[in-house]
Amino acid sequence: MGNLATIDIIIFLVYFVVVAGYGIWIYRKKKSAATGSKDYFLAEGSLTWWAIGASLIASNISAEQFIGMSGEGFFVGVAVAAYEWIAAIALIIIAVWFIPIYLKNKIYTMPQFLETRYNKSVSLIMAVFWLFLYVIVNLTSILYLGALAIDTLLGGDNLHIIMIGLLLMALLIGLGGMKVIGYTDVIQVAVLIIGGFATVYMALQIVDQRINGAAVGNAFAGFQTLMNEAPQHFKLMLEKPVKTTTTLAMPENLDVQKYVVLPGLAMYFAGQWIVNLNYWGCNQYITQRALGADLKTARTGILFAGFLKLFMPIIVMLPGIAAYVLYQKGHLPGFNGVKDGAYSAILGFLPTGLKGLAVAALTAAIVASLAGKVNSISTIFTLDIYKKYLKADATEIQMVRTGRWAIIIAMFVALAFTWTDVLGIGGEGGFTFIQKYTGFISPGVFAMFLLGMFWKRTTGTAALVGVILGFVLAIFFNSFAVDIFGKETWLYTAFTYEKLEKGVVHTITEIPFLINMGWSFFITIVVMILISLTGPKVNPKAFAIDSTMFKVDNRTLVLIVVTLLLLTALYVRFW
User: Fold this and answer.
1) Looking at the predicted structure, is the pLDDT value of residue 3 above 70?
2) 376/372 Cα distance (integer angstroms)
3) Which residue ranges run through the membrane (predicted)?
4) In the CATH hierarchy, which top-level class contains the domain 6-18+67-574?
5) d(CA 278, CA 449)
6) In a designed cystine with 145, which of 67, 75, 100, 379 is the match (CB 3.0 to 4.6 A)?
7) In this predicted structure, what is the pLDDT of residue 435?
């Protein structure tokens, strides 16, 4: 395995055997009990709160976080941690207000929610949308970025073999159903956190050794060195650039590129909330872990995940900042400065033994996300398309079999798209690629869910118009608004900058995509409200909401308060 020593290979194989063995044990134990489609797709009633929380984190922290967010840490710095830290608040909102509505109405899939609240047309359109998004955007990016990182660490020239290996490992877990995924995710997240923190600790020691000349590196001294050498990388709020047009020769060009990705304080009034609330609350891939549990278990698991999210930037972002400082000081001679290579560049410093643990942690994150994603693809296809439109009289056995075939086919499609990076994931930057293209449908989807849950007047017609309008508006702001209205309006400020890719200079003019999402969402909400006002005052399909649904017990309240206090301290420190 290329650059791995024997002990590294042994550590990795131990990880593989433990995860595979535990997954097989869970699967065999499950087979002895009555197994139906809800058990296979949702692990109904069998996941504990800690398994739900761990599974949420394992499914969320994948290649786009390890590689993509570390790359943004290299490029922008701590500002990218907003995605993780705002997620903690989003998870509190989901646990307190969203999950009770799902569970009370026995919702098992997001398309089912849309059919129950609106109509079959909206449900079918979104089922197809989600399948397309999960396979073409999410599955491909996870696979490509993960395989690329491991391949780089192992010395290169094995990208396709690694892709196949990752898919086979995910297939082994994914075919076992949600119960196998949920409980193996506990091991995956343990490996992920231990390996991630070990990598960060060593990276900070290396910074102290290389920059300060310390014989034995000190992690705390290394962290202080990062703050001293790159103070601009420890600011959560990026200032809006004065110049809106820059070239490669201008120092402001880099500031513009950073602001386009993370538009400072403005993003907190725009797309940042939509990204997080839509991802954590209206996403089959995430909510599926809690939909088979009772309210108390689901709530505690989600809040536990929110608490863990506060610490994720240490694992996924800090290595990128360490790579930036080392690169600026000339201590990464083999690194070309491309941001998505930052994490792999840091892993190259790791000593024998720890490198195997780091590869295991990275593999755990990738495999857990792949398995969780294909399970969601399988669930939506089987329950919302196959059962409703292709074979209404399908038996439980036929549904489980169909779900497994859906997993296999989704894997092959993802492999086909990533084999030569057809979508250009590497050039866009992995984390930005996912956020940007997911953002095309997020405004309409979140508007539809939000009004559907909490405004009884929302109609099916408004929902259908909303999801289409949100998509059209996102494309409009991304591709046409500047040509029609110009670069500077009261709605937005567009920026023109130059970017060097593979030796070619590209001139790009764009509005920050988080601003695009904010306006797309706002306009969609207004239009949906206006359409709904023409309908009955209470839509017959509106959910009955009881205020007692949203009450939390004292233990839950303590966990919420502790999370918010820690988050406040982080923002005060790095503002």
Assistant:
1) no
2) 6
3) 6-28, 40-62, 74-103, 124-147, 159-177, 189-207, 260-281, 302-327, 404-425, 437-455, 462-482, 513-535, 556-574
4) mainly alpha
5) 9
6) 67
7) 61
